[in-house]
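Justification of computing resources. Each target in the renewal requires a structure prediction run like the one illustrated here; the chain below, 431 residues long, is used simply to show the kind of job we budget for.
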Amino acid sequence: MNDLPFFPISSQVDAQGELIIAGHDLYRLAEQYGTPLYLFDAATLRRQAKTLQQQLAKEYPGESLVAYAAKAYFSLGMARKLAALDLGVDVVSQGEFKFALQAGFAPDRIHLHGNNKSQQELEMALDLSIQAIVVDNLDELALLEKLAGMKQRKARIWLRITCEVGLHTHTHVDTSSANSKFGLHISNGQAAEAIRQARSSRWLELVGLHTHLGSQLFEPEVYRQAIQVQYRLAQSEGYIPAEISPGGGWGVSYNPADPDDRYDAWVKVVCATVQAECSRLGWPLPRLVLEPGRSLVGRAGVALYRVGACKTTPSGLNIAAVDGGLADNPRYALYQAQYSARLVRQAAAAPMLETRVVGKFCESGDVLIASVMLPVTRRDDLLAVPVAGAYQLSMASNYNLAPRPAVLWLEDQSIEVLQAREQPDQSGWWV
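Resulting structure tokens:
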């Protein structure tokens, strides 16, 4: 069936009108592994990675790398799948760092990000000589220089530049504003000062510039502007970057109201702009690094919930409560994220009823989908929410002492547990 635009590419509706993914019966999976249950489709993730890698190689004649943004979703199991796809990885914590190494990512393909890295994280990066420690502020630059001197090891660094480019996205995922907690600002001179300090340091090796504008971006032009800002800054300081990264943040379509999320326009603008700036300045092409997260894993993921209580309010609002919610997916509460959904056993049925899908947690803001058209929902129905692969489980909590869900990797006719369901009574939470 073609009418599954937001579900993984292996999704089908069978002759009985039931949704299946990678050939698997979702009701059987729910019975075996419980709900909420998160599913990752191997075919979709592989296609996303291969498509981006091929487009980058086609559009950019210099050296390039696609590095996965681990914050989108990372477990040791998922890290191993990603490492097998010839990707790099950007990490923001000691935990992500350790998973990346255990999964097989080479240190020279790891970038360490974060606005307030711990001393332990910086020392770990120094000891392993990773590809780049992405320095976020002057305070961190001084600390890193001190640590590198103590260890007598040179630190390979990028500088994160805050370009202050105007964006059309939610304020909570805009990281490029003048008041952003992230990066070295150009307008107050911090970015230029960081370049000067890094270049004059015995223990800092400045190899590149980095920026990250934000998330859920669908306008390639903002990437052009950011890259031009990076090069103007470099030119003003007489610095030729050997590596450059415009970060990630390219958007993903969650529902029909969202723009087209194909990589083409983004990759073309980024590659063309870097080449144009180098041509203008007579500089060699740098190694170009893109850092997608959501756009690699978002569509590969599906969240599966079991419907419980259903009711209609005095105002006529139809509510279906599911057995997950805020604890496994806080995105609606954080920035009013919008989703689509299907009932697994009525996947091809015409939607008849405007429904609000809510969670089971003790918050009025525990909403999964504010409004979605569905067939009439009943207790024990299974609800499948697509584009669930990013920024759901990675931001999950144990609110109300809810255990985090199991995560499955689905191949055609095979299943692998990427992350087991938490067992609170075995972990000491309830002691």
